[in-house]
Amino acid sequence: MHPSPTHLRGLGLGFVGGMMLTFDIPAIRLAGGDVWSLLLVRSFASVGMALVIFGIWGLVSRNAPPLLPGRVGLVVAALYGAVGLTFLVSVHTTTTANLVFILAFNTMFAALLGWLVLGERPAVATFLAMAAMIAGVALIVSGSLKSGNWFGDFMALLTAFLIAAAITITRKSGKDMGLAPMIGVALPGLLALVMVAGGEGIRFEQPWWALIDGAIIMPVSMFCLAVAPRHISGPQVAMFYLLETVLTPVWVWMIFAERPDDMALAGGAIILAALAAHIGWQATARRRAMRARVPRRPA
Q: Residue 154, Cα to own-chain centre: how many angstroms?
C-alpha cells in the first residue's frame, strides 16, 4: 500500500520540525551570550514571530487559533515559559549530551502524568521502558556527580517534566495551544529584561545566532511538530523528536569538539534503545488494533 498524500505531508512536517530542533542548542552555543542575554533575545524573537504568524493567519483565514485559549492557555503558556528558563540554565550548566539524553525522558513523564491526570494507565511495556530509561538517566547523573554537572542535569530533568505537564494539560483541555509555547516565553523574557537592565547589559559574541534561533529555528520546529499529529500517528511523531537526542550531540561534537563522556554515551544508548523499543511496540499495537476493527469478509 502506497502512503497517501496526507501521510506524506505529516512525515515531511515531522522531519522538518525534528531536524530544525536539532539546531537549537548549537545556535545557542554559537551565540556565545550569557543566560539572561540569550533568554531576552530568544524569547522576544519567538513572541514577535508568534504575533506575526497570528496576524497573517487571521488575515487569510477565519479559523486562526487564539493566542491563549482562556485560563488553561495561560497555565500552558506559563509552563512553556518556565521551560525556556530551565532549558537555558541547563545548556549553561551541563553538557549537551547529558541535556538531550535526559530531555528524552519527557515521553515517560507524559505517560505517568497521563495516568494520574487523564486516567490512561500505561501498559506493562511502558513501565519496562520507564525502568530502562531511569537506569540510563542514573548512569548519566552518576558521571555528572563526579564532574560537578549535577545541577544542570537536574534542570534538564525539570525541563522534561515541565514539557510533559504542558502536553498533558493541553490534551486534557482539548484546546488549540499551537501558539501558546511561543507566547509563554514572554514571561522569562521579561525576567531577563530586568536582569539585563540591572546588570552589565546584553552580552553576545555573535547575537545573530540568538535571533535566528528565536525567530526561525524554534517557531518552525514548534509549528511543524504541532501540526504533524494531524496527519500521522503519535508514535511516528515521537520518532522525529528523537532526532534532537541523536543528532544534537553530533553537531556539537563537530562544531565544538565536545565529546560526550563514556557514562553519558552509555546512558544515552540505554534511553534511546528503550524509547525506540517502546515506539516500535506502540506502532505494532496500533496496527493490530486497526486490523481487529476491519470486518472480515464472509467466506
A: 16
Reported residue count of the chain is 299
Provide the angle, in degrees to the nearest 10, between the axes of the packed helices 96-103 and 24-31.
150
Task: Give the 3-state secondary structure of residue 34.
Answer: coil
Spatial separation of the C-alpha atoms in residues 225 and 182, rounded to whole Å: 13
Lowest-confidence region among 141-145, 191-195, 232-236 = 232-236
Compute CA distances 216 → 28, 86, 147, 233, whole Å.
13, 21, 34, 26
- Cα separation, 19 vs 65, in Å, equals 25
286 has a pLDDT exceeding 90 = no
3-state percent helix, strand, coil for the chain, nearest multiple of 5: 80, 0, 20
280: Cα separation from own chain's centroid: 20
Q: Say whether pLDDT at 225 is over 80.
A: no
Chain centroid to CA 153: how far?
Answer: 16
Phi, psi for residue 177 in degrees, rounded to 5 = -110, 25
Long-range contacts of 228-231 (CB under 8 A, 24+ apart): 228/10, 228/13, 228/14, 228/17, 229/10, 230/10, 231/6, 231/7, 231/9, 231/10, 231/11, 231/13
Contact 79, 165 (CB under 8 A): yes
Task: Dump pLDDT digits (tens) for 64-105.
Answer: 777 788 888 889 888 988 988 898 888 888 887 788 878 877
With beta carbons less than 8 A apart as the criterion, state whether 6 and 227 touch: no
Confidence grade of residue 232 (pLDDT, cut at 50, 70, 90) = low
